[in-house]
Laccase
Amino acid sequence: MNQELFFAVANHILTVVAVDAACTMPFATSFIMIAPGQTTDVLLTADQTPGHYYMAAHAYNSANAPFDNTTTTAILEYKSAPCNANKGKSSTPIFPQLPGFNDTNSAIAFTSSLRSPSKVNVPLQIDENLFFTVGFGLINCTNPNSPRCQGPNGTRFAASINNVSFVLPTRNSLMQAYYQGQPGVFTTDFPPVPPVKFDYTGNVSRGLWQPVKATKLYKLKFGAKVQIVFQDTSIVTVEDHPMHLHGHSFAVVGSGFGNFNPQTDPAKFNLIDPPYRNTIGNPPGGWVAIRFVADNPGIWLMHCHLDSHLNWGLAMAFLVENGVGNLQSVQPPPLDLPRC
């Protein structure tokens, strides 16, 4: 849950037919790259010489940080595979070729191959144009020698979106606090753009490394057409952050390396057949753009799906307001709902 993975089956081609429960235009590949929170549906044809073939996965590590470099395996065995009669053991399995641990080109090539099977209804007129910087930070510690303060110079690792490091509420849930009108649990002033504009993938001043800890939500009207550009930053290190949105799927319309250019990059967006997902990673030191319609009322967490990054605050939440039509409002709790 803290690492993206390359996966392959020795000597077998995988045909990708769906991701995150949305059909894709089928395409053949020798490997897949999958992140925490993602699903990938693949078809495999057992058309090789009967034998034993390793299924294997190891980390795709996009950050300059320690990681588990072991490989996990299982064996695909043909029923008619020959055995070694002399030793009573199966024949030696064949091992697959996996991309290297830091092979970003292969990871991006796989992700870029995903398309919807036909033209999709991508929002063209945008109501909410959001630009979210995602990445790490460091928080000063009152006790630098404590177990949680293992960052440089006794600091504590943190993460944020638009310099806000999300704090999960402890007194009440966000939904209960909103619908019961309980104050002091959250605010609705999450910034739509970074509070300070800077060279996001360059040499960032240390004065911009410390985020603000808060529980901030961003309010959306029901039916709003939303575009979010996730921009990775080089604070501490660049990394591919798999961003997951609860309650909605979205079209992945574009991505690239470096800083997003709002004047030139949208011209390269795929607004015809982009894939629909609920979790997407930004290229390390780059950006990814998504579009969706906020048609599911309620409060929906959006976060990096690497577990440690969520704990460090790489999250925020959308408050999608009720609509006026049928099935466009959050249902109230039943009268006999047991109280805590």
